Amino acid sequence: MRKLSMILYRCCWVAFLALLVAGYYLDFSWLWGWLPLGLAFALQLAANRQPAVADARPVVEVDPPVTGRWSALNSPADRVPSHGTRGYGQAYAIDIVAEPEDTARPRFGWWPFVRGNRHFPAFGTPILAVADATVLSAVDHHRDHLSRNSYPALLYLLVESILRDLSGPGRVFGNHVILDLGDGTYAAYAHLRRDSLTVRAGDRVHSGHLLARCGNSGNTTEPHLHFQLMDDPDLDVARGVPFTWRGIGVPGNGEVFTVAQTANT
Fold first, then answer.
1. Higher pLDDT, residue 265 or 10
2. Bridge partners, 179 (sequence order)
3. Which of 111, 145, 244, 255 has a C-alpha 20 to 30 A away from that of 15?
C-alpha cells in the first residue's frame, strides 16, 4: 500500500505538470490542474502522519560513519522528522558536514552563486561502515554537481528537488549505499562521490570498512553525508529507525563533534 501511494504521488505531479503545459495549447480551464496537485499534497501529508518506528523499535547503537571533525545539520536531536518528512525513511536521518580546524567551510550567502566541490572539506572524505553488514545496494553513476549554497541557487534547488522527487528516491539520494545490519535494520548513506564506491551488492563488510567517499550527488546544497537507519531497504516504503553513534550520541543542529581514527580505519 505504501509503495502504491508513492507511485500515485508521482503520477499526480506528472499529471499536474502535463496539464500546466497543455493549458498553453488547449482550451480548457487551468483549474483542472489543481486537482492532481491537491491529491499529491494530500498523499504526502498522509505519509508524514504515519506513526514513527520509534514506538515499536528501540534506539540502535552503531559506530560513526566518519572520522575527524564534523558538524550536524537536520538532526533528529532537534526534531522528528528531521528533514520535515518521513518519506524515504528519513524520519531520523542526519546530515553532517566536515569542519576541520585548519580549513574553513564556505558559508551560505548571496555570492558566489555556485562553488566547485573542491572548496568544501567534506568532499572526498572517507565514508565508513557503521557495523558488520552486507551490502544490499551500491549506486555510483550520478554526477557530482556544483554547490547550491547561495540564495539564488537555492531557488533553483527548489525546482530541481521537485523533478528529482518525481524520478524516485534514487535521484534524491544520488550515489548511495544501503547496508543490511541484521534484525530488520538497514543503513543508508546518500550523496556519495561518483566513482568512489569500494563495494558492490553482495559484499560483506566490517565496521570501519571504507565504503566510498563523500560527494555532492543527488538533492544537495553542498558536499555532505546523509545518514539514516530504516526498517526496509526499499526507500519508497522504508520508515526511519532511531540511532545513536557509539561514543558520540546524536549531535544536534550546529553541534561540532570529533571522531578519532581507529585501527580499523
1. 10
2. 135, 187
3. 145
